[in-house]
Design brief:
Number of helices: 56
Number of strands: 4
Helix content: 40-55%
Radius of gyration: 51 Å
Strand content: under 5%
Length: 1280
């Protein structure tokens, strides 16, 4: 079989394939059948198809030169079917004859015959160059009527008209006629001049509407004139009254818009006719422009349709009259001179419609009707030219200008607009958010492109706009002012609160795995997609950091630009740990900042503006390093070791701010930021070597503090520096007091441990006598309310230091408790109690209403109270401001005044409440006081249980625990976790029990009884403590969710609920859920956290009850609780329809029912399927009073209410079922059941049956029953 040609084979290969095919004599794959022609019919239809005559291609002997151009024979559309090719004809010859060469087609070009076209020779001229093609002078005065046609189009139209008239060869400039589309008027002939109606001022000079368009040229004008004359004759024959009457009739019939159009058309033609007549009169105004008659715009006198101007506004004239001698002014174009006119008056806003916002050059929002002078430069825009200011669209357009000054001006105005929007100046004056609008329009990347500009001014304004967009000055001021508060160095990452859709779909994924999964996707996403969710991530993806480093390192900008860049870098570092790491690792960025703006030696700088910040210490640069160090302990260690910050901190802290040879304010801020940077490093247990070197400096500074506090008025910057110094000493004291971490095997905890601090307790034990005078001096100033705000951070910092000092002292092995208590008593009497009695602190105590929730009830310091105060979950509280004193004084919590809580008393009070039957629950249980006392004794075991089962969040728990215990060597970062991801779920007290349930579900063989029993007991004990003494802790967990968690105790194991301790604890918790103030909030129909479907859980619970309960009363109480009438009927259908066998095991007595029986019987049941199930279980004996007394009483109550109900609105199906059920009840053989169903009266749990009976039926029921029984006797019992 022959192969097909393949790509890449040459013509020689194709010819070779053809020869092989011909030599083989094989039949072709496609057979060519030549049909007859269209007119020949089927004359040759019987002839066999031609198979032996094939077209063969031979290219070997083609001539190299193209043949002579001869006309090719015409091609026929289809060959004749009767034509037979001769057999002896050579195929090559036939190919040469039909298609000799490809050039026979391409070169056969015939030019157009121009022999008959007349040729006009150019006219001889005396000038060196031919005349320029100029606009005709005759059309200058008619530019107003030329419409929107350009000058070039008018000239072309004039030339065509001149050519149509047959111009002579000698004409150089033809006469220009009216352009196409222009309004023309004919000169009235004597025939038309006499056409005037008697008694009317209107004369008819020719047809206005009927033009004859559509007829032949010879007949059009004649027909139009004939119609016009007939109309004139008819009007002259009519009286004026008839004409007016006919006019009114026509106006009533025609469309008003059509009438207005006709009138405007007539008015336009009249004006055109007057203009034409004036031009024809000798001595009339010529088309040339003179000084005495300035040009008017063609549309200056037209009324504006969109804007409502002042009434009777005069026409505006050009301020300067153009002359033809001026350059390029020989031809005046009025439409291009309109911009030289005066601005139209500002329109009045007649409606409440929204208008485009316009801003001044300072970013101020201008009112729509404000009238400002034009010399302010606010009117250089085309849209709404009369309004001052520029819109955001116009400013965006101006940023793309080729003039650098315009680009810089636009960016400057946008930066001012953003700054005012951040400050909230616009308020509700604008519809929508300016920032959102700018970000959606791509302003972020416009700034990034502007940073790559070559002009320094544009770069400076772009950086200023970027700072205005990213940095909120108020936020930085607040963060700086709260640094000396309790844990004031801890900050949340400034990240967007809204999560990505991918994160929302995978909430259960651990944070480490989530971060690993997101990193490749975020790296592959383009910057615009990142910027839609996070502006900082979008900017970092555009290589912003290398560009800022280039600007600082190469261009040497001015002080304002340097400060803006440092502010932007601080904002980037506050974003997250990842962003701070990228700032640190940007090549040569931190090296440049430290080298140029934190030198160890500099020339003295006086007060006033500084020409350059290079080689001069800058407080903002020191703040940037402090923010970077707050992101993590590793970053702080790299900053201290790799950038020689040791020498720089020593150089700045060793001298007083007055001796730094800097402006006073800059020196104070620089010293403050240096102390804060050292305090942040000390928060990780680092920088201890600096304490030994600068110990004399710190002692001298502490001795000077009381004198600085006595100055009046106190300087705010000095107060911030003093507070930062005390915060530094607090961190150093905590580092000295913390003991080295024990050797542990847990990798999560081992990763947080570090080497011991270089500061020892003996080195800081002498600081307390120097800090106490500072606190005493502040107490003297606090008597005046106006001084509290001035010295606010200093007393807080003093209290925090004293709290850390006494905490570290109590942890020292060599400390004497008696000395510690005596010193505490002295401090309390001399300082703390006078401080607490200050009137200024009255408002602060009101903000501490939550404090009794965390403090113990009695004044004894017990292990349980210390444990409650040191719970890991307290790390969720963010204590700032006044709350700092409450946390500091927790060391002396025995001296604090107590507020009586809603729940008072200890375990003995709970037992006494049970004995007096104050509780509403009827579940027999062990004394609640005994259970609470046992729980308090088991608090260490409870704590270990929760720490063991919180392993997924163990690293975060240990970090939070180390921070609040003062174990600084184990603090990983000063960035708090994002508030959108809580450390523990809201139902964390039940977390070990939930995980135990999941483990039991995944392990068919069952769990270890020891582990199961211990975990369940600890969880139940802790929940009972919270329910009894801290009910606010469980407010976030709905009662229905608590009930579902209790059910998990029975589902974990088949023997766990039989244990006596578990029985007592579950009974006590069930009694808490059944209290009158809690029971109404029990809602099983809503969605519960952590539970997909409560009916599914209840069905599983019924299966387990039916299999392993063996009539346990506590188990039965939990089964009966969801069957109340107000809950979903699905739960009751599941029991009476699918788990009828469980009814025999529900032997809970009526006296032990945790809720009232009326909760099950009121209101009457209306579900027909459930009523039929009730009746069936009663009749068949599946539901008996000795097996299930509670549900027997419930079923009897609902069936009795149904069979005697006489609702007229019931459906036929319900009526038939009611009648049938009553008939079967009357015919029951069980006399006791028949008596109960017919004579049921009211529920009563004190009776053995659970309800009262009628001794005799009421008359209505008796009559209804007799009528029904008589029908049954006559017709028999109807079957259903």
């Amino acid at each position: 079989m022959l192969s097909r040609p393949k790509p890449g084979e040459s013509e020689v290969d194709l010819l070779h394939f053809q020869s092989q095919f011909l030599a083989a004599g094989a039949a072709p794959a496609v057979q060519l059948v030549k049909k007859g022609n269209r007119g020949g019919g089927d004359a040759n239809s019987d002839r066999p198809p031609l198979q032996d005559h094939r077209d063969v291609v031979m290219l070997d002997n083609l001539p190299d030169l193209p043949p002579a151009l001869v006309p090719s024979p015409p091609k026929r559309a289809r060959p004749s079917p009767g034509h037979c090719l001769p057999e002896d004809e050579d195929p090559e010859e036939r190919l040469r004859r039909h298609d000799q060469h490809i050039t026979a087609v391409l070169t056969k070009i015939i030019e157009r015959d121009t022999s008959s076209v007349a040729v006009n020779l150019p006219v001889p001229s005396g000038v060196a160059f031919p005349a320029v093609f100029l606009r005709s002078r005759d059309t200058q005065g008619k530019s107003a009527t030329s419409g929107k046609r350009s000058i070039f189009a008018q000239e072309i139209a004039a030339r065509r008209i001149a050519e149509a008239k047959g111009p002579s060869v000698g004409e150089v400039v033809p006469n220009v006629g009216p352009p196409e589309g222009a309004v023309t008027c004919e000169t009235p002939t004597p025939r038309n001049q006499g056409c005037q109606l008697p008694g009317s001022s209107h004369s008819f000079q020719g047809p206005n509407l009927v033009t004859g368009k559509g007829l032949r040229d010879q007949e059009a004008e004649q027909e139009a004139q004939t119609i016009h004359e007939e109309n004139i004759a008819r009007l002259q024959a009519m009286a004026p009254e008839e004409i007016l009457q006919e006019q009114q009739r026509l106006l009533a019939q025609l469309d008003p818009s059509l009438v207005a159009f006709l009138r405007s058309h007539s008015h336009t033609q009249e004006q055109t006719g007057e203009t034409a007549s004036e031009e024809q009169r000798p001595g009339g105004p010529s088309a040339n422009v003179t000084k005495e008659e300035p040009l008017m715009s063609a549309f200056a006198s037209e009324p504006r349709k969109r804007d409502k101007l002042e009434p009777e506004a005069p026409a505006l004239a050009l301020p300067v009259t153009p002359q033809k001698e001026w350059l390029h002014m020989d031809t005046v174009e009025l439409e291009k001179l309109h911009w030289t006119q005066d601005l139209p008056p500002v329109r009045r806003q007649q409606t409440q419609e929204r208008m485009q916002a316009r801003f001044s050059l300072q970013g101020e929002l201008l009112a729509p009707d404000v009238d400002l002078p034009t010399h302010l430069g606010l009117h250089h825009h085309g849209e709404e030219a009369e309004r001052a200011g520029y819109s955001l669209q116009e400013l965006f357009h101006l940023t793309r200008s080729q003039v650098s000054q315009q680009r810089a001006l636009a960016l400057h105005v946008l930066a001012q607009v953003i700054s005012r929007a951040q400050a909230g100046e616009f308020g509700d004056r604008l519809a929508g958010s300016v920032l959102s609008l700018l970000l959606d329009a791509g302003f972020l990347f416009l700034l990034r492109f502007s940073l790559d500009d070559r002009v320094d001014g544009v770069i400076a304004t772009a950086i200023r706009a970027l700072r205005a967009l990213l940095v909120a000055p108020g936020d930085e001021e607040l963060l700086d002012s709260t640094f000396s508060w309790y844990h004031g160095a801890l900050t949340f990452p400034l990240m967007p609160s809204q999560e990505d859709k991918e994160d929302e779909d995978e909430d259960e994924e651990c944070p480490a795995g989530k971060a690993k999964r997101k990193s490749p996707e975020e790296e592959s996403r383009p910057p615009p997609d990142l910027a839609r969710h996070d502006v900082i991530k979008g900017l970092l993806a555009t290589s912003l950091l290398p560009r800022l480093r280039y600007v600082l390192e190469v261009t040497y900008p001015g002080p304002a630009v340097v400060l803006d860049i440092l502010a932007v870098l601080i904002r980037l570092a506050r974003h997250s740990l990842e962003s701070a790491t990228r700032v640190l690792e940007c090549p040569r960025l931190i090296e440049t900042i430290v080298r140029e703006f934190l030198p160890t030696s500099w020339s003295p700088v006086g007060a006033g503006p500084t020409p350059s910040l290079y080689k001069v210490p800058c407080a903002t640069a020191m703040k940037l390093l402090r923010v970077l160090a707050s992101a993590g302990r590793n970053i702080a260690a790299r900053l201290l070791s790799s950038f020689d910050l040791r020498s720089r901190l020593c150089r700045i802290i060793a001298e007083a701010p007055q001796e730094l040879a800097l402006p006073p304010e800059e020196a104070e801020m620089l010293s403050t930021e240096a102390l804060r940077l050292w305090a942040v490093a000390a928060s990780y247990g680092q920088g201890g070597y600096l304490y030994r070197e600068l110990y004399p400096v710190l002692m001298r500074a502490l001795q000077v503090v009381p004198r600085e506090l006595s100055t009046h008025p106190p300087q705010p910057l000095s107060m911030q520096r003093i507070a930062s110094l005390l915060t530094l000493l607090t961190q150093l004291t905590l580092a000295a007091g913390s003991t080295p971490a024990e050797t542990i095997s847990d990798s999560a905890e081992a990763s947080l441990s570090a080497t011991p601090s270089l500061v020892t307790w003996t080195q800081v034990s002498g600081l307390q006598p120097l800090v106490e005078p500072c606190l005493r001096q502040t107490l003297k100033l606090l008597s005046r309310p106006e001084m509290w705000r001035a010295v606010g951070p200093v007393p807080v910092a003093c209290l925090l230091f004293l709290g850390a000092y006494y905490q570290a002292w109590s942890q020292q092995p060599s400390s004497c408790p008696e000395d510690w208590l005596q010193d505490m008593q002295r401090l309390s009497e001399e300082l703390l109690l006078p401080l607490l009695s200050q009137p200024t602190l009255g408002s602060l105590w009101d903000s501490l209403s939550w404090l009794p929730y965390w403090l113990p009830r009695d004044s004894r310091i017990t292990s349980s109270s210390v444990w409650l105060l040191g719970l890991p979950h307290t790390s969720h509280l963010s204590l700032h401001g006044p709350c700092a004193m409450s946390t500091t004084c927790s060391t002396w919590h025995s001296l604090w005044p107590r507020k009586r809580e809603r729940t008072s008393g200890g375990p003995e009070a709970a037992d006494f409440s049970d004995q007096l039957s104050l509780g509403s629950s009827r579940v027999p249980r062990c004394g609640q006081g005994t259970l609470l006392a046992q729980a308090c004794q088991d608090l260490p075991s409870i704590r270990n249980c929760y720490l063991t089962h919180c392993s997924p969040a163990r690293a975060s728990l240990l970090a939070s625990q180390a921070l609040h215990r003062g174990e600084l060597q184990r603090v990983p970062t000063l960035l708090l976790p994002m508030p959108t991801e809580p450390l523990l779920p809201t139902d964390w007290p039940f977390l070990p029990l939930i995980r135990l349930y999941h483990r039991a579900s995944d392990t068919p063989s069952g769990l270890s009884p020891t582990d199961t029993m211990g975990t369940a007991m600890r969880v139940l004990q802790w929940v009972l403590v919270l329910e009894s003494w801290r009910p606010q802790a469980l407010w976030a967990v709905p009662p229905a969710a608590r009930l579902a968690r209790l059910m998990c105790v029975f589902l974990v194991d088949s023997e766990l609920f039989r244990e006596s301790p578990v029985q007592h604890l579950v009974a006590a918790l069930l009694a808490q859920l059944c209290q009158p103030q809690v029971l109404p909030n029990l809602n099983l129909d809503c969605r519960l956290p952590g539970l997909t479907s409560f009916p599914d859980l209840y069905a599983n619970f019924l299966d387990h009850f039916e299999a392993v309960s063996f009539g346990d009363h506590l188990f039965g109480a939990l089964v009966l609780l969801p069957l109340q009438r107000r809950f979903s009927v699905t739960l009751r259908l599941a029991l009476f329809g699918e788990h009828v066998g469980a009814l025999r095991a529900l032997s809970l007595p009526l006296t032990q029912l945790p809720v009232s029986l009326e909760c099950y019987t009121v209101p009457p049941e209306d579900n027909l399927a459930l009523l039929q199930l009730y009746f069936r279980t009663l009749v068949t004996g599946a539901l008996r009073p000795r097996w299930c007394p509670v549900l027997y009483a419930v079923a009897v109550a609902h069936v009795n209410s149904f069979i005697f109900s006489q609702d007229p609105q019931s459906s036929d199906e319900v009526k038939a079922a009611r009648r049938s059920m009553l008939q079967k009840t009357w015919l029951l053989a069980d006399e006791g059941l028949r008596q109960h169903l017919l004579h049921y009266k009211l529920p009563n749990s004190t009776l053995p049956e659970g309800f009262e009976l009628y001794s005799q039926l009421p008359p209505l029921r008796q009559h209804y029953l007799q009528r029904l029984t008589s029908t049954v006797l006559q017709n028999g019992v109807s079957e259903t």
